[in-house]
């Protein structure tokens, strides 16, 4: 289910694409659409010249017969929306770092209002609107409105509540946020201190609360609080609360609300008004508690429905799933910048004084960069699969089949954690890969890092989420002997006995080219780490105590399991028909790089569990090195395939035309410090100092 699903049904009568409003000026030649991105295989060794797209006889085009039926096949939509945003001056973003917080925020409001206007004018479909938001590339209150407020009502509201609230939300007649986190509690949702006490006398609730949410815009919030009726507690539930007047935007009586202040970085996530909210005996009608999981009667009695109470956490599952796909986007963007710049940048070179070497040709650069390129593809594929898993669990829930909910929770939590941690680290690595210029704001990388890194914390701290995965894995291991067959992503555990004994068959470097060999090594590692944790846990009398004591090892086991999922989904993807000469081969190389680089980085796990021998590890490393040489000729094509406009990349270093140095120089002059030749403050501070020194010198 998608965030804004259905909003058009209520809102726009017909769906009309942008048609000829946006020109697609690409040249045509052969290229291949890999799940919404084009892989144009170059024939010039990947060293495309630094001219314009036209000069390069550019590599991208649209050939319908090349399109894969993978879902969602949105290349056209994505391409059109990217161009629409790039060509609209309101969506300009190159000045963000120079704006004050107030200017920045007002500009975000302007962009959001303009985007909404365009969505209506052009009658954009839900998919188009969502792509547009992606390319506008600025965190805004609308993310929370569409991404969490609407899904919370859809997932946790009754039919009647949905009918009342969703049309208002779809038309943006109310704007909502997701107010769950408190000053003192974020991870521990059960520990929230906000209470919602039912008062049967007046048929209303009262609240006391402190949330993280939207500080300046939202008129409404889904607030999470512990329900108390008849003096008894009934766990945490969601409540729709109006925060501000729909007439003058003033907070309603009993509500104190504001922004929590500047966050990490300039620009970055400061376009978002994360807020503080205090309730002082605020009263709301009973029917504003979201009652799909539990109903409160007029008399104050609680009636549990047949859906599991974990559904109250359902919005988080939905968002975690979207975050995995977003990780691929952020990572591919950083990698695109670093790869293009690495082809432009030259340092050192032949002793005979010839042209200097492109830094992308250094093996160290390749060994840092190409695994990140491989990860960008890997996360894209696992993100697609996770979307499928989420849709599947949603459909099952509608049919009262709750059996796959624990797995969906474990997968979304684990993959959110794995991909966001890897992406945040990768963006920083890309910055370093660009040397000194990577530290410039105009490289686009500092802001990308600052805006991305909170993804490791929001929607669940990454360690806390891995502990959830570990809990799920320990449960699975404990049930192995009971006849309950593990399914889905834990199906490999059914072969635990074999995997505990298995010996890796690799004898020469090329043996690592067999997907079955790689898979088995990752399965054996994960199973062995999980079983070792389970055995250690069994030595504790109190399992909760054991879990706390062993939590660092449990996190490692959870990571091993999640990495196995990513590797196996990449391998599965390659079993599909992939049209286009050489495309599958390139993806296979990236898949091996992804897996073997992980193996190299986590060698301790593989060796200590006896999954592979030191000799096999060394062969894997030899093979990895040889794979880098195979990626090199197509590295530029593989990042061009992400089809990012220069506007979206927002990076002088990552420019498509490679015209880096003149543009860096040009950018420097745009800084407000260069508005005057002699800086403001010269007369007050510099001149007296200089004069003083002159006087001292004379003395
Ligand atoms: C028109 C224009 C269109 C434009 C479209 C725009 C779309 C925009 C899309 C943008 C999307 C996103 C934007 C991102 C912005 C992000 C902003 C950030 C928001 C937030 O951060 S919100 C707050 C998030 N908070 C958290 O994540 C808190 C983390 N903590 C928890 O989740 C839980 O407390 C916990 C899981 C850590 C522990 O919970 P607890 O109740 O103590 O649980 P346990 O006792 O451990 O477990 C009980 C059992 O429940 C199972 N469980 C736990 N969680 C879930 C779950 N989510 N689902 C299913 N099951 C769950 C757990 O496994 C236990 O099971 P068991 O008893 O063992 O069987
Ligand atoms: C940019 C941003 C946007 C946000 N947007 C929203 C929003 O829209 N709505 C909303 O409700 N919230 C929002 N949040 C809040 C966010 O969801 C929480 O910050 C997040 O869930 C982490 O919780 P916490 O802050 O309590 O961290 P803590 O739990 O206090 O984490 C601190 C440290 O303790 C560790 N830790 C905690 N528990 C355990 C444990 N059981 N075992 C081992 N280690 C543990 C963590 O790993 C971490 O290292 C946002 C946060 C950010 C940064």
TrEMBL record:
Swiss-Prot/TrEMBL keywords: FAD, Fatty acid metabolism, Flavoprotein, Lipid metabolism, Oxidoreductase, Peroxisome
Record localization: Peroxisome
Pfam family, one: Acyl-CoA_ox_N
Domain Acyl-CoA oxidase C-alpha1: from-to ranges: 313-474
GO molecular function: acyl-CoA oxidase activity; FAD binding; fatty acid binding
The Acyl-CoA oxidase C-terminal domain, residue ranges: 515-691
Transmembrane segments: none
Entry similarity comment: Belongs to the acyl-CoA oxidase family.
Protein name per its UniProtKB record: Acyl-coenzyme A oxidase
The organism of origin for this protein: Hevea brasiliensis
């Amino acid at each position: 289910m998608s965030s804004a699903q259905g909003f058009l049904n209520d809102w726009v009568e017909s769906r009309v694409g942008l048609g000829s409003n946006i020109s697609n000026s690409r040249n045509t030649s052969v290229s291949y659409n890999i799940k919404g991105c084009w892989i144009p295989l170059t024939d010039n060794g990947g060293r495309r010249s630094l001219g314009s797209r036209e000069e390069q006889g550019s590599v991208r085009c649209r050939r319908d017969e090349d399109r894969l039926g993978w879902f969602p096949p949105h290349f056209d939509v994505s391409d059109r929306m990217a161009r629409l945003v790039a060509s609209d001056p309101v969506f300009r973003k190159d000045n963000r770092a120079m704006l004050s917080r107030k200017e920045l925020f007002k500009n975000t409001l302007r962009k959001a209002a303009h985007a909404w206007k365009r969505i209506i004018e052009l009658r954009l479909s839900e998919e188009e609107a969502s792509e547009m938001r992606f390319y506008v590339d600025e965190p805004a209150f609308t993310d929370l409105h569409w991404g969490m407020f609407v899904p919370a009502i859809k997932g946790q509201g009754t039919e009647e509540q949905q009918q009342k609230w969703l049309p208002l939300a779809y038309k943006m007649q109310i704007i909502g946020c997701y107010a769950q986190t408190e000053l003192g509690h974020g991870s521990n949702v059960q520990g929230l201190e906000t209470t919602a006490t039912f008062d049967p006398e007046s048929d209303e609730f009262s609240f006391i609360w402190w949330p993280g949410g939207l500080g300046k815009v939202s008129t409404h919030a889904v607030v999470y609080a512990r329900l108390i009726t008849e003096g008894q507690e009934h766990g945490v539930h969601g409540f729709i609360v109006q925060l501000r007047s729909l007439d003058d935007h003033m907070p309603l009586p009993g509500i104190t609300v504001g922004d929590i202040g500047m966050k990490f970085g300039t620009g970055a996530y400061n376009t978002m008004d994360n807020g503080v909210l205090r309730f002082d005996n605020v009263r709301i009608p009973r029917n504003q508690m979201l009652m799909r999981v539990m109903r409160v009667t007029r008399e104050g009695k609680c009636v549990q429905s047949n859906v599991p109470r974990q559904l109250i956490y359902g919005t988080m599952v939905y968002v975690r799933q979207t975050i995995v796909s977003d990780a691929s986007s952020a990572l591919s963007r950083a990698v695109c910048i670093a790869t293009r710049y690495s082809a432009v940048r030259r340092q050192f070179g032949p002793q005979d004084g010839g042209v200097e070497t492109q830094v992308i040709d250094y093996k160290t650069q390749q060994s840092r960069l190409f695994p990140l390129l491989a990860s960008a593809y890997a996360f894209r594929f696992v993100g697609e699969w996770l979307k499928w898993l989420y849709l599947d669990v949603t459909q099952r829930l509608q049919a009262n089949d709750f059996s796959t909910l624990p797995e969906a929770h474990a997968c979304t939590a684990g993959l959110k954690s794995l991909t966001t941690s890897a992406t945040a680290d990768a963006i920083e690595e890309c910055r370093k890969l660009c040397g000194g210029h990577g530290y410039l704001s105009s490289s686009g990388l500092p802001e990308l890092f600052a805006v991305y890194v909170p993804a490791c914390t929001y929607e669940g701290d990454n360690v806390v989420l891995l502990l959830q995965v570990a809990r799920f894995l320990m449960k699975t291991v404990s049930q192995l002997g009971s006849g309950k067959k593990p399914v889905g992503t834990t199906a490999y555990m059914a072969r635990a006995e074999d995997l505990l004994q298995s010996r890796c068959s690799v004898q020469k470097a090329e043996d690592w080219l067999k997907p079955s060999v790689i898979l088995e090594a990752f399965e054996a590692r994960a199973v062995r780490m999980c079983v070792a944790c389970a055995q250690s846990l069994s030595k504790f009398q109190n399992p909760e105590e054991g879990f706390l004591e062993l939590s660092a090892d449990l996190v490692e086991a959870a990571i091993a399991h999640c990495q196995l999922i990513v590797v196996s989904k990449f391998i599965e993807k390659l079993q599909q028909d992939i049209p286009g000469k050489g495309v599958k081969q390139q993806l296979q190389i990236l898949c091996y790089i992804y897996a073997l680089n992980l193996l190299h980085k986590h060698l301790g796990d593989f060796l200590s569990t006896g999954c592979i021998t030191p000799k096999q590890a060394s062969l894997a490393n030899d093979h990895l090195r040889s794979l880098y040489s195979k990626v090199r000729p197509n590295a530029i094509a593989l990042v061009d395939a992400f089809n990012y406009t220069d506007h979206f990349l927002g990076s002088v270093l990552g420019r498509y035309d490679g015209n880096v140095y003149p543009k860096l120089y040009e950018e420097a002059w745009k800084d407000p410090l260069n508005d005057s030749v002699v800086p403001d403050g010269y007369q007050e501070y510099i001149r007296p100092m200089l004069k003083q020194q002159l006087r001292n010198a004379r003395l």
